[in-house]
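Q: For a teaching handout, I want to show students what a protein-ligand complex looks like in token form. Below are the inputs, and the small molecule is zinc ion. Please produce the holo structure.
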Amino acid sequence: MPELGPIEPLLILGISDYHCHCDFSADAEGSVDDYCRAAIERNLVELCFTTHYDGSQDGISSDEFIRIDGELHPVSPDNLAPYVDAVRQAQEDYYPLGVSVKLGVEFGWYEGCEEAAARLKERFDFDYFLCGIHSLDNLCFWRHGANKGCFDIYSLEEFAERYFDQVIKAARSGLFDAVAHLDYYKRKAYNHYGDAVADIHRNYLPDVFRALVESGTSLEVNTAGVRHGLKEYYPRVDIINAAKKAGVEVANLGSDAHLPSQVGFDFEGAAALVPSRVVEDRD
Ligand SMILES: [Zn+2]
Ligand SMILES: [Zn+2]
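A: Here is the structure, written as tokens, with zinc ion included.
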């Protein structure tokens, strides 16, 4: 079991974390139980698991996996089933201990994935279907080992146009409860393109916000940006405020924890950005 601590209890009560990865995600550590125990230590009232589910445009080139009992398996609905069972079990186990556990998934968006996403939703009764955009045209945002990333291929303007076009398509699909980490690209884009990255969203936000409002898709506040050394969330607070002004629902905080000790990370700072949640489904 990975080291849980140090986990400081949050001083604000009634907080939920709607984005965390347990070890069914190939890039995360810690079991469902480890995360639930961490949530209790942090004083969270809700914890929604959102393991990665990353297919690919051609169905064969994905190098993403689902980890089951320490072994990596291809991404498929069948291989997601043990994760679903583990989270549903935790829901039963931790409800009496004061944490409402939710079943979510972070579906990796790619052009033309709508049918695969709809099929996955039909098969499993998710509480939360989160859209994560981590790649364009089957290329990760940034270079992975010998593989080129889309920053290597596109100019900053081309990247922005293509990226926000995909955000709008994802929202308009009507499949998702929320779009994760709206400006996640900035994690590495500054290194590649320089300071101009800070403003690339500006021309696209009105269309993005319209698509979110019209489809009833919310935006999450993802605190991992601070963990990644950026001193700001995904998205930045001025973008969050502009989204709210445009009528976009900004409903949930997500730590994007990949370790149990990251659950609820920096939520003291972020709590005021989302409505406080009254957990009503405890019966
Ligand atoms: Zn993500
Ligand atoms: Zn994530």
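A: Two things your students might notice: The CA atoms of residues 26 and 185 lie 20 Å apart. The chain has a mean pLDDT of 92.
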